[in-house]
Amino acid sequence: MRIQLLPAQLINQIAAGEVVERPSSIVKELVENSFDAGANQIVIEIEQGGTRLIKIRDNGCGIDKDDLSLALSRHATSKIASLQDLEQVASMGFRGEALPSISSVARLTLISRIVNADCAWRVCADGSERDFNPQPDPHPQGTTVDVRDLFYNTPARRKFLKAEKTEFSHIETVVQRLALSRFNVGFSLIHNQKEILTLKPVLSDAEQEQRIAGICGSAFIDNAIKIDFESAGLRLNGWVGLPTFSRSQQDMQFFYVNGRLIRDKLVSHAIKQAYHDVLFHGRHSVFVLYLTLDCALVDVNAHPAKTEVRFREGRLVHDFLFSALHRSLANVRPGKTIESSI
Ligand code: ADP
Ligand code: MG
Predict the structure, then answer these.
(1) Which ranges carry the DNA mismatch repair protein S5 domain (predicted)?
(2) Long-range contacts: 120-124, Cβ < 8 Å, 24+?
């Protein structure tokens, strides 16, 4: 067989294989876009576990009418323009893949209005069309992405979708993780017209702990110490559970790097080591931790879903995490804030 260039829609569908695993992956990508747009209010409307409808509305900066069709094109992004930008990317997105991938496996409508525009503009995409003709719409400032009938044109992938309840519980988990990453953003999650989760933007430390308690349970906050360490340009803050408040599963471990939830061997190792002497064998620690460091010191371009990162100075990060946590756990007293520089 001779070599041929694949049609655009098929290229996007191949990319969708990596980015759109299930409805919850769409929610993650769209909410991250809302974060990048500076939104502080996000409404997530779901029907039938996200297979029938995923609709995300934000009050962010919006998209210029003339950029709407680019937003749906592959490798088109407003977030980076050069290799230098890529090496110190601070936004959640940068690959320019989510919207074209989603629109290649579902029916997508994008409505957006920028500040001071007379009206909003709407484009519809079902993956095949490349020439969009924006229509005026009364939408307020911000963006709504409406995604319907997921995998309607890829029946083989549709078969892998689980029951509505299961898919929605994945969505709920994703929204909780996202909500822990941006306290300044209010969220509303609706499933089949029923309000499931409402979180107001957080204004005080007490409200911060309320949000954590709402997501991780009040027992977590009652059994956690608040920490804040800074050294050599690295900051680690958040809440670590007392060794007496462990779990049999690793289901309450949230680690964010520059606002992005990640899974990383080096990080897990440092945390495990710190808890090593104080935790019973076979038990797992609980934590909500935020590592902040110069974006140039962490490479987020390691995986399409961006849940993996590479630290440029892995040893430094590992040792910083270990000693911050080791110190915290050596001084455990509930309700106390441990702050120090190492
Ligand atoms: P990426 O986030 O990697 O840039 P996406 O396909 O997710 O790629 O989005 C493409 C572009 O569309 C973004 O770069 C951004 O300019 C625009 N965009 C998408 N969603 C929003 C939104 N909610 N608000 C404002 N702009 C958006
Ligand atoms: Mg994106």
Answers:
(1) 212-330
(2) 120/62, 121/65, 121/68, 123/68, 123/69, 123/72
**pTM metric for this prediction:** 0.95
pLDDT over threshold 60, residue 336: no
Q: 132-171: per-residue pLDDT in tens? A: 899 999 999 999 999 999 999 999 999 999 999 999 999 9
- The protein residue whose alpha carbon is closest to atom 17 in ligand 1 is 71
94 close to ligand 1 (CB < 6 Angstrom) = yes
Q: Does this complex have an ipTM over 0.90?
A: yes
The amino acid that residue 202 corresponds to is V
The residue whose CA is least distant from atom 13 of ligand 1 is 77
- Please give the backbone phi and psi of residue 180, each rounded to the nearest 5 degrees, phi first: -75, -15
Instruction: Compute the distance between CA of residue 177 and CA of residue 30 in angstroms, rounded to an integer.
Output: 14
Tokens of 311: 């630290």
